[in-house]
Structures are given as structure tokens and as C-alpha cells.
Amino acid sequence: MPNNTAFEQSDTVMPHTPSSVTPSSAVPESVTIVEVSPRDGLQNEATLLPTETKLELIDHLVASGLRRIEATSFVHPKRVPQMADAEAVSAALPRGEVSWIGLVLNERGLDRAIAAGLDEVNIVVVASDTFSRRNQGTSTDEGVDLWNRLAKRASDAGLKTTVTIAAAFGCPFEGEVPTERVADLIRRCSDAQPDEIALADTIGVGVPAQVVALADAARREAPGIPLRWHFHNTRNTGYANALTALQLGASALDASLGGIGGCPFAPAATGNIATEDLWYLLDRSGCATGVDPAVLLSGARRLGEMLGTTVPGQLSRAGLFPPVELPPA
Q1: Beta-sheet pairing, 68-74 with 32-35
Q2: Fewer Cβ atoms within 10 Å of its own Cβ: the N or the C terminal residue of the chain?
Q3: Model confidence at 17, in pLDDT bands (50, 70, 90)?
Q4: Is 12 exposed, middle or buried (0-12, 13-18, 19+ CB in 10 A)?
Q5: Cα 107 to Cα 96: distance, rounded to the nearest angstrom
Q6: 260 and 47 Cβ atoms separated by less than 8 Å
Q7: Residue 14 has pLDDT above 50, yes or no
């Protein structure tokens, strides 16, 4: 059953207004973390986890208190073999507390997401033509047209809709992406009345000044639509960008347990910002997330065992401050 409260904001979250976009030194009292490790995290890992192991990971995430989780993507298994079990994962998801998100790229993907009974769909429009063709086989303009069709169908089926504008901070093939181009895409995509717009630094090239410029563009072109941000830490700017977005009134921030992930179709697109590291930044800044750090860190360590590697996130190695003895993974 779709969760119709997933996008409701509490009175403690900074509202979206068309006023000044200069970051405040203060942060909102709370923000939503959207967990993407089961999808964006695992899709770029060489290790193919079996369905039951993915569900163990998801159990850790739910137990930690995360309540919006991108569980899978409905894409062709030959293109992204890590997501070949999307239906099996969806069928086993615990329902009731979490709003479950699926990424879709085309009509067939949306058919599968609706049949799987997910609560939300994340539909991607890529800001550059070259990357769009490599990622989805369409031009950017074709991607906007597709978004408009899919958004209506998803909404009619009772699913919440997010349009993610990928490569909004830069393209691995074309280089700089002008703010004006992203602003135009925001305006055109807002015509379909998404429940949320997400701006993605898909290859981790963005800096806080770009966050400010894009937040200004979003407020100008799509006033009142909640704004979500997706950052990678490829060049160690992801957390600075997240803090800037938070100060500008972000409704949600994406993160991936352990900092795993990236885009398999973008060269050198390394991991997302780590959920546990983001939690530490937010918590020490006075911003509540509803997440239990002990369970989160236990999950990050267990994820490293699942993948047979050390996850990129720092907090699972450095530990909490002040020091706290944590349970085993």
C-alpha cells in the first residue's frame, strides 16, 4: 500500500521559500536521510550479493531507523546484473514502517515497480545528452518526455514520484553543465507535478557554490516542490555539499551505508556519501534524523564483510565521539 505521508514535512524542517538562498549558519532541527545502498550502492560493486544477503542488509537499515529506502532498480539485468533480483527483493520487503523506493528508467521498469507494490519511484533525467544516451539510450529531451509520461502513470497508480536530474553538477563526457541548463530541466520536469525533485552530483565534482546556485534555480523554477540532494564524495566535497544543502532547507539527503556505490556508466564515479558519516555530521550539528548510530555502524561493518572489503566510510573505523562501545556486527 503506498505510503502517502512519506513527503510530509514536520514543522521543525526549514520550509522551502523563494527568499534568500544564502546558507544559514543554523541547520534545521531534523531532516530525512534517504538510504540508497541497496540500489545505488550495490549497483557499482563487483561482488554480486544473493537476494538473502541483500535482505539482511535491508534489515540492518530498517532496524537503524531509516524510513525511506531505495531498495532496488527495475532495469535490464544484462545492463545492471546486481539488480537482476528486483522482484524477489521487493516481494520480501517488510511493509508498514518504510516507504520503499524503486528506480525506473522506462515504461517496462515502471510496469515492474507498480506490480512489485513499491511506494515510490525515482525516475532519472540526465542533464547532458552524451551521458543520457550512455545511461538510458535517450537524449535529454527524450528523457524529459519520458519522465512526463511515467510520472502521470505512477501517480495514477498511487505511487509517489521523484524526478532526479542526474549529472546536474557536471558530466564525465561533456564537462561543465551550465546552471541554466539544469534550471530549464527543473522547470520542464516540474510541469508533471513531481512530489519531489532530486539534484544529483552523479560523478562527485560539485562544490557548495554550485549547491547554492542550483538551490536558487530550483526555488525559482519549481517553488514549493520539496528538494532532495544526492552527493558523491569522489573529490571529498560531498559532506560540505550536504551541509550547504541542509542549511538551504533540503527536505532530504541521499546517503549509502558504508559510502559504497557509484554509477557503472560514469568513469571514475566513486562512492556516495556514507550514511553513518552523514549521520555524525548531522547529529553533531544538532539536526535529528531518527537513526540509531550503533545499529548503523554495526550494519556498515557487516556490509564490509558481505562485500569482502573495507567500506569507504570513515565512522565505522574511527568510531563515535565521545567514544561508545558498540555491539558486534
Answers
A1: parallel
A2: N
A3: very low
A4: exposed
A5: 27
A6: no
A7: no
pLDDT of 2 > 70? The answer is no
pLDDT at 16: 30
Distance between CA atoms of 167 and 136, rounded to whole angstroms?
13
178's grid cell: 551550465
Q: Assess whether 287 carries a catalytic annotation.
A: no
Q: Which of 41, 55, 11 is nearest to 275 (CA)?
A: 41
Nearest to 69 by CA among 43, 42, 39: 39
Q: How confident is the model at residue 128 (pLDDT cuts 50, 70, 90)?
A: very high
- Model confidence over 241-288: pLDDT tens digits? 999 999 999 999 999 999 999 777 777 667 899 999 999 999 999 999
Q: How confident is the model at residue 24 (pLDDT cuts 50, 70, 90)?
A: low
Nearest-angstrom CA–CA distance, 11 and 28 = 10
Q: Is 210 helix (H, G, I), strand (E, B) or coil?
A: helix
Q: Note whether residue 5 is domain-resident.
A: no
Give 32-101 as a DSSP string. Answer: EEEE-IIIIIGGG-SS---HHHHHHHHHHHHHHT--EEEEEEE--TTT-GGGTTHHHHHHTPPPSS-EEE
Residue 228, domain extent: 32-318
Q: pLDDT at residue 8 above 60?
A: no
Number of domains in the chain: 1
- The CATH number assigned to the domain holding 48 equals 3.20.20.70
Q: Answer for the pair 288, 236: CB distance below 8 angstroms, yes or no.
A: no
Q: Is residue 214 part of a domain?
A: yes
- Whether residue 4 is contained in a domain is answered as no
Assigned domain for 17 exists: no
**Per the residue annotation, which of 171, 189, 263, 287 is the catalytic one?**
263
Residue 234's pLDDT band, with cuts at 50, 70 and 90, is: very high
